[in-house]
């Protein structure tokens, strides 16, 4: 790095890579993996989702993990961000429910309503 302009360019490129709120392509699945999520069984959920995505060869789907999502009593929690759609939050997940979410929501575009936070909170 030899100039302030070069540093500014590096900063701009880095910000583009971390900006997940706009112009995001594809689908991002986020599994809550804080201690609350892990103790509730989030690790098998994460593993199941990764395996299903790989098995189905879903190239435009990214499975990631995060810390506490904030509703510990409903863990394991999975959030789905699909391009051009509202975020969907699935709660009280397990490995089988994770497979169902991949099949019905990610592949076929049908939200599994009975597994969402809105359904559980009624």
If you had to describe this structure to a student in words, what would you say it looks like?
The protein has five helices and four strands, in the order H-E-H-H-E-E-E-H-H. It has 122 residues and is of the alpha+beta class. Strand 3 (78-82) and strand 4 form a beta hairpin. The longest helix has 15 residues, at 4-18.
Strand content: 15-25%
- Secondary-structure-derived class: alpha+beta
How many DSSP E strands? 4
Helix residue percentage: 40-55%
Q: Can you give the mean pLDDT? A: 89
Shape assignment: globular
Radius of gyration: 17 Å
| N/C terminus separation | 56 Å
Order of helical and strand elements: HEHHEEEHH
- Taking pLDDT < 50 over at least 5 consecutive residues as the criterion, the unreliable ranges are none
Largest sheet: 4 strands, mixed
Arrangement of strands in the largest sheet: 2-1-3-4
The helix count comes to 5
Task: List strands and helices in order, with pairings.
Elements: H1 4-18, E1 27-32, H2 35-40, H3 42-55, E2 61-66, E3 78-82, E4 88-90, H4 95-107, H5 117-120
Parallel strand pairs: 1-2
Antiparallel strand pairs: 1-3, 3-4
In short:
By secondary structure, this protein is α+β, with helices and mostly antiparallel strands.
Pick out its properties.
alpha+beta; 5 helices
